[in-house]
Amino acid sequence: MKENKNLEWKEKMTPQYLKTVSAFSNYEGGIIVFGMNDQGKVVPISNPEELCLNIENQINDNIHPQPEYSLEVLENATIELHVQKGEHTPYRYKGKAYKRNDTATIEVDDLELSRLILEGKNLEFEELPSQKEDLTFSTLAEYLRQTLGIQEMNENVLKSLELYDKHQKYNLAAEILADRNTFPGIDVAVFGKDENIIWKRVSFVNQSILLQYDQVAQIYKEQYQYETITGFEREKIELVPEVAFREAIANALIHRVWDSKRNIQVSMFEDRIEILSPGGLPSEITKEEFLGKHGSVLRNRILGNIFFRLKLVEIFGTGIYRIRQAYENSITQPTFLISEHSILIALPLFKDHIELSEDESIICEQLSPTRIHTMSQIMKISPFSRTKTRTILNHLIEKNIVEKTGVGRSTGYLLSKSI
């Protein structure tokens, strides 16, 4: 076991551990082990009961508000301090709030502090009052007319959508949906064969996110859809599934952090689309849950509910699942890269068959999806040199057609089971 984001070792008790108590209370919780040096070696505490009392007094006197924690003395004379994530953030030590950055504990910046304050008040950024009183909603009104048959945008409609009340007037969710606003938007770039060739670049900012959604969808159609005519029949061809693209854009808009000034980035390549959204996962959800069938947690509940009512998304956490469903019969599959501050969704071109060169086909015919072949075994029947065979295998690995197992002399190759 090693130190990590949720585990810290302390050979002795020094005031520095109180910063980590603050960090664990503010975010995911964690354990501090006293009597363990940096190498993970036990250095027994001489009087653990007395140290427990000192720890308890220090936490009670220095961390505000009072965090939730427990102390346990183990048989090897070490002490485990279990700190729970608290509900009344921010938890401060000497007036400052902290967070974990891998195995280090650092002070949060002003943006993170404001988020902790909102969380402690059980508020989301979108619920805060807007400073604007002259908002208009023509795009939203048109969506409501076409989708729900609502002919007039009035105060009662805005109230039912949770965008307005008589006391605080408009909230920030209303401003984000308004025709004009001061919020970030979406950057779109259409590339050629690589990022050095840019065919088109456009930004949609300071406008309703519904209009942004429509405008980006139009660029998608221009780049990844076309029609074929066979006899009297017209068939629409989608190089990237439209349902997957719309889900990814809607997901980026309703799950992003709106207190960040960064734009959503949509990069359109010849072989894929990448959607980069500011803000990692909400603290209540794990990566595994996010990628599962019912993993979504609404970061922006009001915006999410409106997108649902306008039939732009499914509300029950199925966005990522629906993206995966769109590629159910495709050899290529979407990928999801999740970091602390962003989520990247990559949507490849839909392919329902494998395109192999003649040389690649020859090598694939020698492989099996159930039996691992070593290079020596492959070379006994390969018509190519060892160098060329290895080059072909590497190309097949890059295409996810062949899987490589083991290292060194134990290296083996087998066909991907997705073929």
UniProtKB/TrEMBL annotation:
Cross-referenced Gene3D superfamilies: 3.30.565.60, Schlafen, AAA domain (3.30.950.30)
Coiled-coil region(s): none
Every Schlafen AlbA-2 domain range: 3-106
Pfam families in alphabetical order: HATPase_c_4, SLFN_AlbA_2
InterPro entries for the chain: RecG_C_sf (IPR038475), Schlafen_AlbA_2_dom (IPR007421), Schlafen_AlbA_2_dom_sf (IPR038461)
Name used for this protein in its record: AAA family ATPase
Organism: Dubosiella newyorkensis
UniProt lineage: Bacteria, Bacillati, Bacillota, Erysipelotrichia, Erysipelotrichales
